[in-house]
From TrEMBL:
Segments forming domain NB-ARC: 158-325
Organism: Solanum tuberosum (Potato)
Family from the record: Belongs to the disease resistance NB-LRR family.
Keywords from the UniProt entry: ATP-binding, Nucleotide-binding, Plant defense
GO molecular function, one term: ADP binding
Protein origin, superkingdom: Eukaryota
Name of protein: NBS-coding resistance gene analog
Chain's gene name: LOC107059267
InterPro entries for the chain: NB-ARC (IPR002182), P-loop_NTPase (IPR027417)
One biological process term in Gene Ontology: defense response
Lineage: Eukaryota, Viridiplantae, Streptophyta, Embryophyta, Tracheophyta
SUPFAM superfamilies documented for this protein: P-loop containing nucleoside triphosphate hydrolases (SSF52540)
Length: 340
């Protein structure tokens, strides 16, 4: 598929090692947003091509649109790289992150269209947005296969916080640099058998930079609707944001819930969504991941969990298992260069 090829090309461009050296601040954040959306398209198209859970006919109408918007995104990124490498210093002044926003917005809009088409199959929309449901007590297959190294200690800390004796609503926060494994840790915690037995209802919402309040509410309701009979999902479109927020609150008031708020960037966003989580003094929890330490502290001033870089041993194990897989041994002659 041409769309799939275009997505692979964009991801390769964004993964070039010099990208992190050329772009900083909001421009780097915009590139992170592009990468996240491109990875979503990659998952959808790959599953469709492998006939593993996504009906290609459902997204065929958007395949060309995906190809166009992804190709445009790559053109914009390559243009910025070219100008910087050529020494056009004015690029830093005249072409700030704002010139990235239109293509970020287009990518986000197309993603929402794909999600809307797939939302008729609730299992697909939950799987592809990283959420799970009680009808499937463990996370979807591609999350089970995640290779994790050096997170056992972090997992134990978060597990104790989530299942602790505190009755009031506790906000448990995980902070750390991009790519350090915050989302992976949150997924492993969310999927942990003891966590599954401890809470009654589970919700996963992803925020990212392109915050859309309504989309967060809909994502939460898609999770809840798989576990509680509240309202026909077809009625969501008829409701305004206040009605959707009220429905989320009412759905969470009874059970002991765990809500994961993944990749939140600002205090304002937390202020916007924190009100939808009721405190019924029944041991419910919100698990929040963020790159911004000040956001973690703002959400819970008492304590936050900061993730550190992997040590050398676990870094080597992670690289080795990613390259050769858990079921295969690595060639001994590659160990020395691999560790370097």
């Amino acid at each position: 598929m041409e769309a799939y090829t275009a997505v692979i090309s964009l991801l390769r461009t964004l993964d070039q090692p010099y990208i992190s050296k050329l772009f900083h601040g909001r421009t780097a954040n915009a590139l992170d947003s592009l990468r996240a959306t491109a990875e979503y398209f990659h998952d959808v198209l790959e599953k469709a091509s492998n006939k593993s859970g996504v009906d290609i006919e459902k997204i065929k109408s958007l395949e060309e649109e995906i190809r166009i918007v992804v190709s445009e995104a790559e053109d914009v990124v390559e243009m910025k790289i070219s100008k910087i490498i050529k020494g056009d210093r004015w690029t830093f002044r005249i072409l700030p992150h704002h010139d990235m926003l239109p293509v970020v917005e287009k990518m986000d809009t197309t993603k929402k269209q794909v999600m809307e088409i797939l939302s008729h199959d609730a299992d697909q929309i939950l799987e592809l947005t990283g959420a799970s449901s009680m009808s499937d007590p463990m996370l979807s297959g591609h999350l089970k296969d995640d290779i994790v190294q050096g997170l056992d200690g972090d997992l134990e800390i978060i597990d104790k916080r989530l299942r602790g004796p505190t009755s009031y609503l506790d906000i448990v926060t995980i902070s750390g640099m991009g790519g350090i494994g915050k989302t992976t840790l949150a997924k492993k915690t969310y999927d942990h058998l003891q966590i599954r037995h401890h809470f009654d209802i589970f919700v996963w919402v992803t925020i990212s930079q392109e915050f859309r309040y309504r989309n967060v509410l809909l994502e939460a309701l898609h999770c809840i609707s798989k576990q509680r009979v509240n309202v026909n999902t077809k009625d969501y479109d008829k409701m305004n944001d206040s009605e959707l927020a009220d429905l989320v609150q009412k759905s969470l008031k009874g059970p002991r819930y765990l809500v994961v708020v993944d990749d939140i960037w600002s205090r304002d966003v937390w202020d916007s969504i924190s009100q939808i989580f009721p405190n019924r003094n029944n041991g419910s929890r919100v698990l929040l991941t963020t790159r911004e330490t000040d956001v973690a502290i703002y959400a819970n001033t008492s304590i936050h969990h900061k993730m550190n870089l992997l040590d050398l041993d676990n870094s080597w194990k992670l690289l080795r298992d990613k390259v050769f897989g858990l079921e295969h041994d690595h060639p001994p002659e590659l160990e020395e260069i691999g560790k370097k």
